[in-house]
Design a protein that fits this description.
By secondary structure, this protein is of the alpha/beta class. It contains 11 helices and 7 strands. It has a 5-stranded parallel beta sheet with strand order 3-2-1-4-5, sandwiched between helices. A two-stranded antiparallel ribbon has the order 6-7. Helix 6 packs parallel to helix 10 and helix 7 packs across helix 8.
Length: about 290
């Protein structure tokens, strides 16, 4: 994969600004996270992860890395844990405190986005992170930090990052998107940079809304084409996702290579992002 050049400090500052701005509506915006199915999956995953900790018998100390407004923290606090919720966004932490602050087993801390220098080696019985690594300029460096601050016998949980098969354009996934509808398949093909250009246009219409939609699609086509032609240029979204394009995404094998000298992988699974609130019900249920 080509080397993508990110300016670490600029990327961190953009992430802070973006997440401070979106904090108040983050939970409402991300219905793929804040829905009963995904929340139940998160809860059961955290229960299992905590049960695997062998460092001690009383309350384990857990770092929620990139806690945001408290997606993982709210579930961790229902378990016998002491939680340190950390994020680069002070606005997100303020909202977390408004939602569940004052809990005697919760502490919040502002992270620097680069490392965990404020925490000594073997500080935590568990480190958990959800939908965060793709925001971190040097996400492999953070993996090394997870290992450093987690005690022997502790647990590292990494969740909600795009799986490798997403970028491989598997036939079964293309069929699934086709069943969902033309728009879902078009969006995916735009991201992959491989589609029939004519297929994105909504016919010959004089409807202003249709014309505007076609302009938007053509603009996105041009953007993705440019991204394919210049693969080393960073791609930055409205929430400052850094590693979410075909030429720059989370590399699970590289994460494993960092972990395996120090850890045993006890569970690994792929799952569909939960779109039960905006996918056709029959297709989603299937």
């Amino acid at each position: 994969m080509p080397s993508i050049r990110h300016n670490p400090q600029e990327s961190i500052e953009r992430n802070i600004k973006a997440h401070d701005n979106v904090a108040a509506i983050y939970d409402l915006k991300h219905i793929e996270i804040y829905n009963p199915t995904e929340q139940n999956r998160i809860k059961s995953t955290l229960q299992e992860a905590v049960s695997l900790i062998t460092t001690l018998k009383n309350r384990p100390k857990v770092l929620d890395f990139g806690s945001g407004t408290g997606n993982l923290t709210q579930h961790l606090l229902t378990l016998p844990t002491n939680v340190i919720a950390g994020d680069v966004s002070r606005q997100s932490l303020d909202l977390l405190n408004k939602k569940i602050g004052g809990h005697k087993h919760l502490t919040t801390t502002t992270l620097n986005g680069k490392d965990l220098i404020d925490f000594p080696d073997n500080s935590f019985d568990m480190v958990a992170t959800y939908s965060v690594l793709h925001h971190v300029p040097d996400y492999l460096g953070i993996i090394d930090e997870f290992v450093r601050v987690t005690k022997p016998g502790g647990v590292i949980l990494i969740d909600h990052e795009v799986c490798p098969s997403y970028w491989e354009k598997k036939n079964h996934y293309l069929c699934y998107l086709s069943e969902l509808g033309k728009n879902f398949l078009n969006i995916y093909q735009l991201e992959m940079g491989s589609f029939n250009f004519n297929s994105i246009l909504a016919g010959n219409s004089t409807n202003p809304l249709v014309i505007l939609e076609n302009i938007r699609k053509i603009s996105r086509y041009g953007y993705n084409l440019f991204r394919q032609l210049i693969p080393t240029k960073p791609v930055i979204t409205d929430e400052c996702d850094l590693h979410t394009s075909i030429n720059d995404h989370i590399e699970w094998q590289e994460i494993k290579d960092r972990l395996l000298p120090h850890c045993t992988i006890t569970r690994q699974e792929d799952y569909l992002v939960c779109r039960e609130n905006n996918y056709p019900p029959m297709i989603w249920n299937k």
